[in-house]
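Project outcomes to date are best conveyed with an example. Our students and postdoctoral researchers have been running inverse folding experiments weekly, and each run begins with a structure described purely in tokens. The record below, which covers 426 residues, was selected by the lab manager from last quarter's runs and is presented without edits.
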């Protein structure tokens, strides 16, 4: 006969380093700062962000609601001594399933166990019959971690909001690209086939938009918008919004120009050129009324420009702006050769970052086109770095500071450029 085998009975609950740390945290927690209702709301929020499953939330809620409300007051003991069978009745689960869910909640640091010698759960009463202590499921660790878990919930909700917003824009851009493919009549079949292949390839790479990261969705959205613009034959010449409203020349193609005397220099009518409202410099036939009108116009223009110089921030070199915003290159944009090139991509940057048209136009009105383009590029850079959560509000704040003369774009540009240089060398 062989040696009889002895089945070793488990001597206690499996204890890990994390569980021991959670138990010490629970024992050092002061009761009274968090109520039972706040814990119930926190448990539901943890389920909504996916930190716990619905079964784990059901058990955690049952444990929280089982504890009396006064147990969370100062000096109380929020310990639940229901058995697994009783808890299983509450959530319609078997005792074994309840045990496994409790172990999962224990590993997550949402509950701890205050065990008795035989692992039974029961209250400990004093001489007068009142419950002085209990052996069972301890909720004090959830009280101690309430602020930490609440911050995790807020951060996760913000990430979900940003991802959902990026997914919504991607779906809009995909629909617009497919509609442009269907409605395009000016392109050849070969070109349409290549563009359609690229559109479907991007859609296949992304798959379900709700499961893709926000960074990937923003890149895909930018590519789809570029393809849709190509199908619509968008003219890349400067638009009306890219030209300063103070310029009287209507066909400006570069940054430097000489301001002409009248908006219609080659008009056939001489009375339009000789009008008292026209700005005539050195014109022999100009009368006294024309001279007074010109002097008045020149004076008002000089006062207006002086006022704008007081509120508009100083600009930096275009190369410094490009060095300070490496995210533009990550999104496929080429280095701008002029301020007009930077101004043309500003509306796309606003759409990607979620900046409204009103906020962009307000920045242009207060700072001018060049300063507004720099401010929007800096806002886009900080948005892609996840340093700001509301790009529209950040741009409005910069606009208000520029109106007060407190905005220093050059410092922001040089600071971001220096940080990029340090990151490259580290």
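After processing, the design step wrote out the following sequence:
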């Amino acid at each position: 006969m062989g040696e009889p085998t002895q089945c070793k009975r488990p001597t206690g609950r499996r204890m890990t380093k994390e569980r021991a740390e959670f138990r010490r945290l629970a024992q050092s927690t002061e009761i009274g700062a968090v109520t039972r209702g706040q814990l119930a709301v926190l448990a539901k929020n943890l389920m909504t962000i996916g930190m716990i499953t619905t079964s784990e939330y059901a058990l955690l809620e049952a444990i929280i609601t089982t504890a009396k409300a006064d147990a969370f007051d100062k000096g109380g003991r929020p310990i639940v001594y229901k058995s697994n069978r009783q808890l299983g009745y509450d959530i319609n689960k078997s005792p074994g399933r309840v045990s496994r869910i409790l172990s999962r909640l224990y590993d997550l640091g949402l509950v701890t166990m205050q065990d008795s010698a035989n692992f039974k759960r029961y209250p400990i009463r004093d001489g007068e019959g009142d419950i002085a202590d209990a052996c069972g499921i301890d909720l004090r660790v959830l009280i101690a971690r309430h602020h930490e878990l609440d911050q995790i919930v807020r951060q996760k909700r913000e990430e979900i909001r940003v991802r959902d917003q990026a997914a919504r824009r991607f779906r809009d851009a995909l629909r617009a690209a497919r509609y442009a493919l269907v409605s395009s009549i000016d392109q050849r079949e070969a070109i349409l086939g290549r563009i359609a292949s690229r559109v479907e390839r991007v859609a296949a790479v992304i798959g379900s938009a709700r499961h893709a990261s926000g960074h990937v969705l923003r890149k895909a959205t930018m590519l789809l918008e570029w393809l849709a613009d190509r199908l619509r034959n968008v003219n890349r010449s400067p638009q009306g919004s890219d030209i300063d409203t103070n310029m009287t020349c209507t066909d400006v193609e570069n940054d430097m120009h000489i301001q002409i005397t009248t908006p219609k220099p080659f008009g056939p009518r001489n009375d339009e050129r000789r009008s008292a409202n026209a700005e005539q410099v050195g014109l022999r036939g100009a009368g006294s009324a024309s001279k007074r009108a010109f002097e008045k116009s020149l004076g008002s223009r000089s006062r207006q420009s002086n006022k704008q110089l007081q509120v508009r921030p100083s600009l930096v070199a275009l190369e410094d702006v490009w060095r300070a915003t490496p995210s533009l290159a990550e999104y496929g944009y080429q280095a701008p050769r002029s301020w007009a090139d930077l101004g043309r991509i500003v509306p796309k940057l606003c759409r990607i970052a979620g900046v409204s048209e009103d906020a962009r136009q307000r920045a242009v009105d207060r700072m001018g086109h060049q300063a507004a383009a720099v401010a929007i590029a800096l806002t886009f850079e900080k948005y892609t770095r996840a340093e700001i959560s509301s790009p529209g509000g950040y741009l409005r704040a910069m606009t208000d500071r520029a109106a007060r003369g407190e905005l220093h774009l050059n410092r922001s540009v040089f600071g971001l450029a220096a940080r990029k240089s340090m990151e490259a060398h580290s």
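The beta strands are 79-80, 112-114, 122-125, 131-138. DSSP finds 18 helices and four strands in the chain. The training component of this project remains on track.
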